[in-house]
Each structure stands twice: as structure tokens, then as C-alpha cells.
Specification:
Elements lengths: L20 H13 L29 H12 L5 H10 L5 H5 L7 H17 L8
């Protein structure tokens, strides 16, 4: 289960429909909180908003939420496997959108940690996808 609302995350990868913005939002929240890539969790105190905002309808009004969820939706990324496929092609994909989530002056921490965030997902290539 993820977040204070205790959303259920599937044990196996499942496809999100294009119209399922809350599904993509839940994945965005899981990514930002460190549930998809554990090193991201080290940045939790440096985020300018709570990741759970991505999974809430009221979050759609915030640019940083919209940009991140749009990128995930556009490339149909709502599982760790689909994220891995994108990062294998372009390891910098989502860096700009993640930077928008950092508090002012803390962007350097994300940029330093980004290679570990990506590597964590890429190295789990054979395991079961839980997020």
C-alpha cells in the first residue's frame, strides 16, 4: 500500500489506460516518494510539495504535477518496467520535471542523486515489478 490513503499498488505490472490520469498520478507520487526508486526517498525533505498531490484530483491544477503526469501519460509509463524502458533509451528523461519538484536551491541534490535514481531502476531489470 502506498501513501496515507493506502492506495493499493499492483504486485504485477498492469497497463494504465490513457484516460486514467489518477493511475499515472499514483505512479508519479510513488516515484517522487521513493517507492519506485529508493534513492529518490532521500530527497523527500527537499521537495517543495508532497508527492501524494500527484494522485489527487486537486493536484491537476499545479503546473509541476501536470508536467510530470503529462510526461508519464504521453509515454504510457505507469510501471517500473515501462520506466526502465524509457530510462534505457534516455537516462535524463524526467529530470527536468523532477527538478520542478525541488525546493529552490536544492536542485543540485537531485542532479547529484539522479544517476543513482536511474541506476536503481535499471539494475532491477529482472525482478518483480511492485510499483
Amino acid at each position: 500500500h502506498f501513501g496515507s490513503p493506502r492506495w493499493k499498488l499492483p504486485l504485477r505490472a498492469s497497463l494504465c489506460s490513457v484516460d486514467d490520469s489518477l493511475g499515472y498520478g499514483a505512479f508519479a507520487a510513488a516515484l517522487l516518494s521513493g517507492a519506485v526508486s529508493a534513492p529518490f526517498g532521500d530527497l523527500r525533505d527537499r521537495l517543495c510539495a508532497k508527492p501524494v498531490l500527484c494522485a489527487r484530483p486537486e493536484g491537476k491544477t499545479q503546473r509541476r504535477v501536470g508536467e510530470l503526469v503529462h510526461q508519464l501519460t504521453h509515454r504510457k509509463v505507469c510501471t517500473k518496467a515501462s520506466l526502465r524502458a524509457q530510462w534505457e533509451k534516455d537516462p535524463k528523461w524526467l529530470l527536468q520535471q523532477a527538478r520542478d519538484w525541488m525546493r529552490k536551491g536544492h536542485e543540485h541534490a537531485l542532479e547529484r542523486l539522479w544517476p543513482r535514481i536511474v541506476a536503481f531502476v535499471l539494475m532491477e531489470g529482472g525482478g518483480g515489478d511492485r510499483a
